[in-house]
Amino acid sequence: MTDGTPGLRTIEVADDVYDVLKRTADSRDTDINGALRYLIEVPTPRAAAEDDDED
Fold first, then answer.
1. Which branch of life, at top level (predicted)?
2. What is the pLDDT of residue 27?
3. Contact 25, 17 (CB under 8 A)
4. 16-27 pLDDT, tens per residue?
5. Per-residue pLDDT for 51 more than 60?
6. Residue 31 vs residues 2, 3, 26, 37, 44: alpha-carbon distances, Å
7. What was the pLDDT predicted at 1?
8. CB 41 within 8 A of CB 26
């Protein structure tokens, strides 16, 4: 049986990616981990071109 507790991960990102994460965290009044969770949970918007199939 495996342990269901999530482990600690370290991910290195470019400075511009860190800046986006930091701004997202600041705007949502959270930390970098909260910003990552928010961005992962946000659904990907559909492209406008996909909506053209409705004739």
1. Bacteria
2. 93
3. no
4. 999 999 999 999
5. no
6. 29, 26, 7, 10, 22
7. 56
8. no
Residue 30, amino acid: T
What is the residue whose two structure tokens read 């511009």?
Answer: 16
Q: Is the pLDDT of residue 53 over 60?
A: no
Give dist(CA 21, CA 34) in Å, integer: 9
* Cα(21)–Cα(33) distance, integer angstroms: 9
Q: What is the mean pLDDT of residues 16-44?
A: 89
- For 52, the token pair is 């053209």
The pair of three-digit structure tokens given for residue 15, joined into one six-digit string: 């400075």
d(CA 5, CA 14): 28
